[in-house]
Amino acid sequence: MASPILFSFILLALLIAASLILAAPESALITHLPGFNATFPSKHYSGYVTVDENHGKSLFYYFVESERNPAEDPVVLWLNGGPGCSSFDGFVYEHGPFNFKAGEKAGSLPELQLNPYTWSKVSSIVYLDSPAGVGLSYSANPDDYDTGDLKTALDSHKFLLKWFALYPEFLENPFYISGESYAGVYVPTLAAEVAKGLQLGIKPTINFKGYMVGNGVCDLAYDGDALVPFAHGMGLISDDLYKETIAACNGSYWNPNDSCNEKLYKVDSEIENLNIYDILEPCYHSPKIREVVSDKSRIPSSFRRLGETNRPLPVRKRMFGRSWPLRAPVKEGRVPTWPELGRQSVPCMSEEVAFAWLNNEAVRSAIHAQPVNECIWVLCTDNIRFYHDAGSMIKYHMNLTSEGYRALIFSGDHDMCVPFTGSEAWTRSLGYKITDQWRPWYVDYQVAGYLQGYDNNLIFLTVKGAGHTVPEYKPQEALAFYSRWLSGVAI
């Protein structure tokens, strides 16, 4: 019989071995970040997960452990949309651990400061660049850049299975999938794959609890019919034009006839000089407007203050549906400058801060990414050929919520790209009983938006004064509803 001392030694050895097995890969640990000169409030990891060995298809992730209690707090996957946009959009500009302050000179390395409203205050977050060809993700086989909804969901599910195998200590944590914009497709299709994998007993077993979508596309008819009522409700088009458009289009605008098209052109002409991502924000995309606003003294003071936040960077001016090649030409072995990529010709958008940071060789080395000369990072790419082959998301939401998965659908109420009117309509169309009648929700005793709760753990929520990327416009309010929802308390 083993002595007590020997038994204790064996037990200690087993515990040490278990701790070594159940631990994040040290090779993925981030020890420093250029531009940040303080102590990380939690551990950060990043790197590639290969989802197809034969093709060399590898997806890049950046993982931020919760600053509160990573052993128990939820793990949340974040996906940006596009399709073709990098999830570093969420990391740099929305709810990542840092606020980015632009460098003193154009293109110089930004300064990073801690973000008091980062979502990693209450959860661990995995920022994933998906599909391959987006952001820092890539494939050795260019054919993989022909993809679509269903293939992206399969690849992202493979990523999750392999990621949790690398980080098994998080398998028991509640897991959620989240995203915005075209991730209104990415999120439910991936959630369906995860749910199916659990039903089939695929290992490792992910503790999947639910999902959330912000200003997300969902259904051709509901999304297509959303803009005209939104424009009228916001006072952007006249009563007369609204009534004429309803009559010509028979109340539906997504599949117009000739007379309907004529009215829709008039609607478009009334709103064409607005920032589609936030109607409160200036958008300088026409020469006439650009000439007027070049002299800021001529702009009303209230208008000049639009976009001001408590972040070092103002809310960004955004472009209208244009994207940029991922594999930008490298001249003489150097990274192209921002003007060389044509950004100066898109006055509604500037991603220069993220571009400068993620195309810095020291940053690439620190986050274990491909060298800059192999992959130029841009926010959104047209290098992939993407097909919407999953159809309407309503059936996905119906299946997932009826299976018991929690769902939060939130909308910045000043977004004209994916207006809240469409999201409100399709959530109601599911036919679930209302369990929490339309009401305001609050942050610091102020109305932050409105919500309506339904059976099967479905909530629709608006964020007052926010645009397309809610955490960028309203970081405090975004953290408030996010943390409340994850903890299961009333928002």
TrEMBL record:
GO terms for molecular function: acyltransferase activity, transferring groups other than amino-acyl groups; serine-type carboxypeptidase activity. The keyword Signal applies. Belongs to the peptidase S10 family. SUPFAM superfamilies: alpha/beta-Hydrolases. It is an enzyme of class 3 (hydrolase). Keywords: Carboxypeptidase, Disulfide bond, Glycoprotein, Hydrolase, Protease, Signal. It comes from Apostasia shenzhenica. Residues 1-23 form the signal peptide. It holds the Pfam family Peptidase_S10. The keyword rRNA-binding does not apply. One of its GO terms (biological process) is proteolysis. This is Carboxypeptidase. It comes from the Eukaryota. The gene is CBP1. Its EC number is 3.4.16.-. InterPro entries: AB_hydrolase_fold, Peptidase_S10, Ser_caboxypep_his_AS, Ser_caboxypep_ser_AS.
